[in-house]
Design goal:
Helix 4 crosses helix 5 and helix 6 packs across helix 8. The model has no long low-confidence stretch (mean pLDDT about 80). The protein has one domain. The radius of gyration is 17 Å and the shape is globular. Helices cover about 70% and strands about 0% of the residues. With about 190 residues, it is mostly helical.
Length: about 190
């Protein structure tokens, strides 16, 4: 863990080859996060874990002014980037077929484990964006816990808040998203 923090500091200071050494050290963790995002994807999807990690790498390298506080903050940013890669991919696919109509899906704790289509992430993204407009920290907690596969203590560290705050925010965010994503009672 300390090695990664030191590599983050070296990269932030502009040390030659800092980003390459950092990526070599965090690559297995980035694959784990990408796999968490891709969990349950249908076969035949043009994206795979490696593609998501490599696209995230390109976007991370492009952030010349990024200064990550620590390991947890770096992984939270990487997870957010991966989520946006999947959302962009789903939007492109929907634009190309069926006129881009998305369908509503229910939000549950095991949403990602049920084999969710990338298309359904767009519905979740819209609800998550609305949640972020209401309370940005709730959105960040969902990004870390749900998309990043982080534990509550890791999320607390990444967001620099207490564990109890993360637990409370996670409960509030799930309730909000459940209400937002619940299917229309009229059909």
């Amino acid at each position: 863990m300390n090695d990664i923090t030191e590599l983050l500091a070296a990269q932030a200071s502009g040390e030659l080859g800092g980003m390459d050494r950092l990526m070599a050290a965090v690559y297995p963790d980035l694959r784990r996060i990408a796999h968490s995002h891709m969990r349950g994807e249908r076969s035949g999807n043009t994206l795979n874990t490696t593609v998501v990690v490599h696209e995230a790498y390109l976007r991370l390298v492009d952030q010349t002014s990024a200064s990550w506080r620590d390991r947890a903050h770096f992984f939270a940013v990487a997870s957010r980037i991966m989520r946006h890669i999947l959302i962009d991919h789903a939007r492109e696919r929907l634009a190309a077929k069926r006129g881009g109509g998305a369908r509503r899906v229910p939000f549950t704790d095991n949403f990602a484990a049920k084999g969710v289509d990338l298309d359904q992430f767009l519905v979740l993204e819209a609800a998550l964006s609305e949640l972020g407009r209401r309370d940005s920290r709730l959105e960040q907690v969902v990004e870390c816990r749900f998309f990043g596969g982080m534990t509550a203590p890791e999320t607390a560290q990444a967001l620099d808040v207490s564990l109890r705050t993360v637990e409370r925010d996670w409960t509030r965010a799930k309730a909000y998203l459940y209400r937002s994503l619940r299917e229309d009672p009229d059909g």
